[in-house]
Design brief:
The chain is an alpha/beta fold. Helix content is 38%, strand content 20%. The chain has one domain: 3-Layer(aba) Sandwich (Rossmann fold), CATH 3.40.50. Helix 4 packs parallel to helix 9.
C-alpha cells in the first residue's frame, strides 16, 4: 500500500485481491457462448472452441474463491423473448457486422442457451445478476450488491474479452472499484480481438493469472 495524494492506494496483487474485500465476477458464462448454435454462428460464423476451452479455468477460479471466502457473483446476459429489452441502437450495434438483416438473438430468457454452463453452477445462496447490456453495471443491482458485501475489488472472468468483459471493466473503474482481469479465464471467438484487448488490459489495468490467484487465495484460506 502507498500513500498517494493523501489517499491509501492498494498496490500489490496480494492487497488488491485480498478475499475479505474481493468479489469474483463471472460474465456471461452461458451455453450460447460455449456450444455451437444460434448465437455463435449468427454473429461470427465461428465455433465456440475458445470460450469452451476457458471453462475449466473459470470453474477452478470459482473453487479457489469459495475456499478462500471470496464472494462469487454470476452475471447472466438476459434477452426477453419479445426483444422488448432491445433498443434500435442496441439492434444496430448487434447487427452491423452481419450479412443478414434479421439477427437471431442469443441468451433468450429460459432457453437452453441462456442457461449458465454446467461447470459454472452457482450455489443456492450465491448471487446471480441478470443484465441486458454489455456492462454488468447498467440497469442491474451489481453496484448495490458489491457495496452491501463491502467489496472494493472485482476479479473479472468470462465472455467476451472484447465485449461484455471490456464494458464491465470500464464500468467498474468508473465506479472506483479496483478491477483485476484474470487473463486465463476470459475468451472470445476472435483470436485477434482477444490478443488486442488483452494487450490493452495489460497496459492499462491490473491483470492476474489463475496460478497467482491460487497462491494468494490459498495463503488466506
Amino acid at each position: 500500500m502507498k500513500i498517494i495524494g493523501g489517499h491509501e492506494v492498494l498496490t500489490t496483487i496480494e492487497e488488491l485481491v485480498d478475499p475479505k474485500h474481493t468479489a469474483l465476477v463471472m460474465i456471461d458464462v452461458q451455453q450460447d457462448f460455449t456450444e455451437p448454435g444460434m448465437l455463435t454462428n449468427a454473429i461470427w460464423g465461428e465455433d465456440a472452441a475458445l470460450m469452451k476451452a476457458a471453462l475449466p479455468n473459470i470453474a477452478t477460479a470459482i473453487k479457489y474463491a469459495r475456499r478462500a471466502g471470496v464472494l462469487p457473483i454470476f452475471v447472466q446476459h438476459t434477452v426477453k423473448s419479445d426483444h422488448i429489452t432491445h433498443s434500435p441502437v442496441r439492434i444496430r450495434n448487434l447487427t452491423r457486422e452481419l450479412t443478414v438483416p434479421d439477427m437471431k438473438y442469443g441468451c433468450i430468457e429460459n432457453t437452453p442457451g441462456w442457461q449458465l454452463c454446467g461447470e459454472i453452477t452457482p450455489l443456492p445462496t450465491e448471487v446471480v445478476v441478470r443484465k441486458g447490456r454489455a456492462s454488468a453495471f447498467v440497469g442491474t443491482d451489481l453496484d448495490l450488491i458489491l457495496n452491501m458485501y463491502d467489496r472494493k475489488t472485482i476479479v473479472l472472468t468470462g465472455f467476451l474479452t472484447n465485449g461484455c468483459v471490456l464494458a464491465t471493466t470500464q464500468g467498474a473503474i468508473s465506479r472506483d472499484y479496483y478491477t483485476v482481469i484474470a487473463t486465463d479465464c476470459i475468451a472470445t471467438s476472435q483470436p485477434d480481438a482477444h490478443a488486442a484487448v488483452l494487450r490493452y488490459y495489460e497496459l492499462r489495468h491490473d491483470t492476474v493469472t489463475l496460478p497467482v490467484l491460487n497462491r494468494v487465495w490459498a495463503a488466506k484460506a
